[in-house]
Amino acid sequence: MRAWFFVLALVAAPAMAQIKVEDAWSRATPPGAKIAAGYLVVHNSGSAADRLVSVSSPAAERVETHITVREGDISRMREVKGYEIPANGMFEAKPGGAHLMFVNIKTPFKEGATIPATLKFAKAGEIKVQFRVAPLTGDMHHGH
Fold first, then answer.
1. CATH superfamily, domain at 2-136
2. What is the per-residue pLDDT across 100-126, written as a single tens digit (0 to 9) for each?
3. Contacts with 108 (C-beta within 8 Å, 6 or more apart), sequence order
């Protein structure tokens, strides 16, 4: 049994090492808000593409993967079934584009706090991250 676990660990470890998550952040939410957006950068140093298939967080009822689609003068959010992370490439969720949607948040996201989440990748498995909460206005990406 131990040998099987050891082999499984050796196979899983390289995949996880190839996926790196950086700059995970969200904005503070006003009182009474039920949703919050999350942003991040995912780097894949592997020779095969991977896919972010789901996200979960104890801070929200569920976390959805969304894209922003422009239809004429109107931008609309659409839920998608995850994000492709290209081989030897990166994926960025950012304001005005792809983003994570924390739905039915349990308490307001407060500036300076961190929001735990678990990202599940098709190949790399689960990776735990902390989203830093930036001010309600502004962009955390440019603030550090």
1. PCu(A)C copper chaperone (2.60.40.1890)
2. 999 999 999 999 999 999 999 999 999
3. 28, 29, 30, 31, 33
